[in-house]
Structure formats: structure tokens, C-alpha cells
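Reader question, answered in our methods column.
A reader sent in the components of a multi-part assembly and asked whether the whole thing could be modeled at once rather than chain by chain. We filled in our standard form and ran it. Here is what they sent:
COMPLEX SIZE: two components
ENTRIES:
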Amino acid sequence: MDFPDELKYTEEHEWILIEEDVVTIGITDFAQDQLGDVVFVELPEVGDRLETGKTLGVVESVKAVSDVYAPLSGEVVEINEALPDEPELLNTSAYEDGWMLKLKLSSPKELDSLLDAAEYQKFIAQD
Amino acid sequence: MSSTDSRGLVLDEKLLFELTDPGRVGYSLPAPDVPQTVPRSELLRAEIADFPELSEVDVVRHYTRLSTWNYGVDSGFYPLGSCTMKYNPKVNEQAARLPGFAELHPHTPDHLSQGALQLMYELQQDLAEISGFPAITLQPAAGAQGEFAGMLMIRAWHEAKGQKRHKVMIPDTAHGTNPASASLCGYDVVPVASDGVLSKAAVAAVMDDDVAALMVTNPNTLGLFESDIREICELVHAKGGLVYCDGANLNALMGISRPGDIGIDVMHFNLHKTFSTPHGGGGPGSGPVGVVEKLQPFMPVPVVVKTGELFRLDYALPQSVGRVKGFAGHFSILVRAYAYILAMGGEGLKRATELAVLNANYVRARLEGTYDLPYKQRSLHEVVFSETALANDCHTLDVAKRLIDYGYHPPTIYFPLVVKGALMIEPTETESKQTLDEFCDALLAIAEEAKTDPDLLKQAPVRARVKRLDEATAARKPKLRWTKD
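And here is the structure of the entire assembly that came back:
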């Protein structure tokens, strides 16, 4: 399983790519592996305001339906339009083509609570 | 191998559309004695123009053959945890088919439907006695609608007190419909983590004066009794909240413990799961709801009441949440539950509970050690194993598919989510030790095959009419109807 060093992670199994005050969010390789074949993805709309810990969308696999929680607060500035038609991108390209959305942060200091790749791998090894 | 496994004549059944033979008909009409007319073109359907043309015997055979592919509780063991189907005694069917019940028009006035109203009244009383709730509505169409009706009553109670609360707490061991019901009533769902059973501390950490209710499933979906439930109810009540109990698992408590006595405010019953009525494809559901006295004014109308010697439908509840289902709910299902309760009697219902718990624990005892059991507290009516002890990267799905080869309907899998690769088995009191042994032997054999021949599991089912289905593609690109090409 792959956990790129340049990304940040959460205990809810999301990855975050930080580029100044806009971040890109997706689910980790571990998350997609646990879910199995993803068959449906529901994303928020551009302009929606997300609050840390609240539901941002839904990922449904052949096994289960799971809420995805917002790892950070902010405004949705872009969503991955390809995902609803090709949910399998979450399985085949979790960190690239399977990105879910871009968020303009409202409280950048929340970034301090994110895990780095080593901390995340330690977390999933315990879990 | 189960006695139900039989390959027999394996027929590749075509769709009726594919069986069609233009010009063939299934009727014989006399020559018209009125002028013929052609429908106006705008009334003719452009899509699906090619309706099948078949004779009566073609259609009868098609559906009869398909019916032989069915697998139900009348053909074999069906151990779906959480959504269990216990056997439906045939005497229930006889009762429901009595012409006085089966042919009664729902608009028949009260004074001409006294028998049906009496049955409903007495069923309300029986459910009240079994659950400890003074008031029962029989109206909701099924368990999930019962939840919805119950949450509506909770909301109405808060509103009548002038309170606007926004949150409902739901533990991770609750039934999956609970968050949907709370959400549909406009509440934000706050998940509460449990360690198999819910702790007072976990509830206390979330409970505040914005929480309208705790929705708890007891026994929970791991088959475990919520041992702190009384203290948890007190804690929620102390902060002005109510406690909703998903009563789907009442079949593990009936005759032993009454939710109404331990602090629960509202509970729905699943008549199929506890009172042996048909379910799913077998018939409509029924989800009566019991409430404590303070919620009685908010019940759906009408309720069945008795005045003197007469039974009638009472609409005079000004604070009612209103009607949630047409007419008297699913009346014929109520007849079946009533027949079951009368046939069993109080001692019989208690014995059913004891045997359901005994059967689940027998399965647990035979499989524990081979299959991983993550939560080791005492099981009640169901037991949940994980996939972690399976050899050679075999998963729960592979075990479930291989069970089909052994002639069993697989149990519930991948639920609850708190167990990795959950395999959730609920045998119910229906099954004999012989059936349980055959089923456990199959599961033990499958665990052994995972070690010696894992491909057998990964390719399963190999003996079924259709092999392993591509469920991912079916869900991603569903084909929902026949098209000519």
C-alpha cells in the first residue's frame, strides 16, 4: 500500500494535498482497499461550506455505504466531476484521478492537527 | 451438505421478451360484434413496443420454473443476522385467510367490523403486556416506518414543551435504518462509539440539552445486551432527552425483559422478526410502536379503543402526529402476529426467546476458535464473527459464496461495520440441533478449504445456477430493463 510523503492524512482515512490556502482531498489507499469496489460517490456542490467533522459526501462500495467526513473547514471550490460516472477511480487511482474535491480553507490553523505519512501508517497498523 | 442442495434440471431460463413468438396468444375472444376502432396514435407507446406474445402455458411454465429457483425459509436454513426470517407457521396463514378478515373492506364502518377491531385491540394489549408500554399503535407499515413514527412522536413531544432540539445520538452498534429515520425527522445524527456495548461515559460525553433522543438497539446488532441501559436512560432523561429503542431484536428479550420497564420511552416492534409474520418478498411488513404514557397524546391516529363492549377507531387525539399509513396498517399481518401470540401463549413466547438465544450460542460455541469472535461478551440471539482468522487472504464474501455451494442462504455479511468483514449469524428458535450442526459443519469445512484450497472459495459458487457475479459492474452500470438489442 502506498502513502506518499508529500500528503497529509486523517484518522478518518482521508488524504490532503496542501497548496497554499487551497487543499485537495481524497480517500487513502487503505480506505479504498477496506471498502472494496466503489460503486457510487456523492460529492458536495461547488460553493458549499464544509465544517470539520461534518459529512462531506458518501462513498458506497459493494460491501458498505460510508460517510466521508470533512477533515478541514472551508468552501468547496472544485469537485472531481468524473467521479460520479467513474467511481472506480477511487480504487484505481486513489491519490490522483480519484481526488474528491478542492477546498478553500477558512481556518488554516486546522492543518496542524493532520497526520504525516509515517504517523498515519502507524495509526492504521494499530487500528 | 444440506438436504436442499439439488442441481436437478438446470434450466437456462430466458426472459419472456426473448421467448416471444409473434402471433401466439394466450386468450380466445369471440369475433367482435361492435365496430372496430384503432387507438389514436398519441395513445400508442413508442418505447418497449415489442411486448412478448406467448400462450398461457408458456407463461405458467416460465413463472413456475422461476419459482423453483427461490430459496426461502420454507426450503432451508436462512440465518440472516439482523434481518432474520423465522419460520412462518401455516396456522397464521389459515387465520389470515378467514373470509371475515380477508374479504373485509377497509371502509366497512366500525359497527360492522367489530371482529377485526377486537383483534387489533387485543393485539395492542398483548404487545403492551410483552413490551411494558401502555400505548401501542399498529399503523406503521414496517419497522423502518415504525422508527420514523416513533421519532415523529419524540419531536412532537419536544415541540409541545416549546423545546427545539437538533441532535439524535446513535451508537455504532445500532441498526442501519436508525440514522435515516432520525435524519428524515430533521435531526443531526451524532454517532456514539461503543466497545461492543454502550457505556454510560460515552453517552454522558455527548448528551446535552440539544440532544432530543438516544436511539439504541437492544440487544444491539452484535447480539449483545446493553447492560448499562437503565443508567443510560436515566442519564438521558436527566438532561431532558428521550430514549428510542429499535425493537427489532425483541425476539431476544420477549418474556424475559420488558423495554418499557427499564426506562425506554418509545420502541417499535418488527412483527416478522419476533412474531413470525412474512417479510420481504414474502409479504408486507408491520412495525407497531409502543410508547410511555407521556407520549400517548402524540400517537398516529386512529387508535383502536374499547367503549363499553364496542370497539371503534378513535381519531380524537388533537396533538397526534397524524396518520402514517392508510386504513388499519397492514391488517392481514396483524392477524398473523395475533394468531402466533395466541398459539404460543406467554410461556411459549418465553420459550421461543430462550431457544433463539440457545441456538445462537450453540452456533457460537461450535465456530468460536475456528472463526474469529471479536466481541466476547455473552451473546443473545445472534453472533458476529470477523474474517481475520481466515487463511490465504480469503474474505467473508468468499465464505458466503461458498456456503451457497453447500446449499445454504448466506448470513448477513459486512454488517455491522464495527466488525472487520462481519459474518452475522442469527439462527432463531426455528432451527433444530440437526440443522445447526449441518450448517456449522459446512462453515468449519469452508474454513478448512480456505487453508487447503483457497481458490475453491474465491471462485465460489461453483455448484450454483450462476457462478460468481460481477457485483461491482452490476452496481456501477446497472441494466434495469430489457432492451431489444
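What stands out: The interface with chain B takes residues 36-37, 39-40, 60, 62-64, 66, 87-88 of chain A (CB under 8 Å). The first strand of chain A starts at residue 8 and ends at 9.
Send us your own complexes using the same form.
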